[in-house]
Amino acid sequence: MQALLFDLDGVLYEADCVIDGAVETLQWCERRKIPHLFVTNTSSKPRSALVERLDAMGLSVSAEHIFAPPVAAREYLSECDATPLALFVREATRQDFAGLEILGDAAEEGAGSVVVGDIGDAWNFATLNRAFRLLMAQPRPVLIALGMSRYAEGDDGLVLDVAPFIKALEHAADCEAVVMGKPAHDFFEAAVRKLGISPAKVAMIGDDIRADVGGAQTVGLTGILVRTGKFRPIDLEGDISPEAVLDSVADLPEWWESQAET
Q1: Where is the domain boundary, 152, 179, 206?
Q2: pTM for this predicted structure
Q3: pLDDT tens digits, residue range 133-185?
Q4: Which end of the chain is more exposed for a tag (fewer CB within 10 A), N or C?
Q5: 159 and 63, same structural domain?
Q6: 82 and 157, same domain (yes or no)
Q7: What DSSP line would sit under the chain, residue for residue?
Q8: What is the CATH number of the domain that holds 209?
């Protein structure tokens, strides 16, 4: 192994609490000068807010090391003619799309792309139906998913993430979303390209058996599952087999050193 991809929520912290050993693991990674990125499906906050939140918890992470769906989507939209954007994202996340043409929030036609992220309790029938109408208008826009996580760990338990709403829109509008986030093959490939290291030499550590481990394995990365965050014992009974299962990110340095010895 030569490089690492870290998930954030559920791996380095849960709610507003840093997972024991996470700070020390990041310090170890910096001391060893191991190339790394933080890949997250978080679309409810802009990258700047993620950095501020992590800093407040004592986790020193720079913005350029965070690879999130809005960042990937911005790069994609800059390369193709898919404007104006119909944004279904939280207000703070809009700053990641500053400078691009944005459709009015009441419009039901005229979009070049429909960008859908995690908007939490803002989902209702009218909002979902507006996204559907935009997708059905001619010419048909592109549906862009900011991640495809099925659920997340909320303050009071599991909560639906963006994937269920994307699946509903794909089915109703008979279209297929361009996914900017885990477990999409292209998302992991883009992250690895940023590292400039062969996928076979990169390990992904996460708490989601499908989005983190399964997605990483599709591009040849080593998938490491931690028993924190959204991990459930039943995760180990499915069709995805992690190369390693750790109690937490605190065990990563020991696992890494063991690989160097084999």
Answers
A1: 179
A2: 0.79
A3: 999 999 999 999 998 888 887 777 888 989 999 999 999 999 999 999 888 98
A4: C
A5: no
A6: yes
A7: --EEEE--BTTTEETTEEPTTHHHHHHHHHHTT--EEEE----SS-HHHHHHHHHHTT----GGGEE-HHHHHHHHHHHS---SEEEES-GGGGGGGTTS-B--TT--S--SEEEE---GGG--HHHHHHHHHHHHSSSPPEEEES---SEEEETTEEEE-SHHHHHHHHHHHT--PEE-STT-HHHHHHHHHHHTS-GGGEEEEES-IIIIIIHHHTTTPEEEEESSTT--GGGGGSS---SEEESSGGGHHHHHHHHHH-
A8: 3.40.50.1000
